[in-house]
What we know:
Blueprint lengths: L11 E8 L3 H12 L4 E2 L4 E2 L6 E2 L1 E6 L4 E7 L1 E8 L8 E8 L9 E6 L4 H12 L4 E7 L13
Amino acid sequence: MQLLTLDLEDDYLLIGIHSTEEDYRLAYLLNKHLETKLIQFKHHLDFKDSDAQFPLFEFNDENNFMSYYLINNKYMQITNNKNNKGLFGGDYSTIYYLIPEKKNIDFFLKIKGCNQLNFAKDLVHKLNNINQIITAYTIEPNTLKSKDHLIF
Length: 152
């Protein structure tokens, strides 16, 4: 008896973006420079085991059969500590990461249906020419321990 194995390759391009802009402002800049129409998805990306919610922007390019997703990598939760009024009392914050092994990345741009190397190079070049983006580069999804967080 022969056992069949199925090797599922990731069918998306993943780009890491470093920027100090707010998510809605970055979506606006991408729309302007890439001629996309990213809009905020009505639901945030969240997980059962966490209180974190990651805003998500989406654009379906029906002409090229591709879908673009802009996702925050960081979520800050501010907790009010009313019981402790001492030196270290008051509010404190907890930061959650969508992909914890990439804490230095502010946003991910995930593009489904894209498997062309030239497209990726051109897109990264365009992103790096946007003044408000510090840097952008492709990421190989198979190298991420938390790549399951990008399945939606």
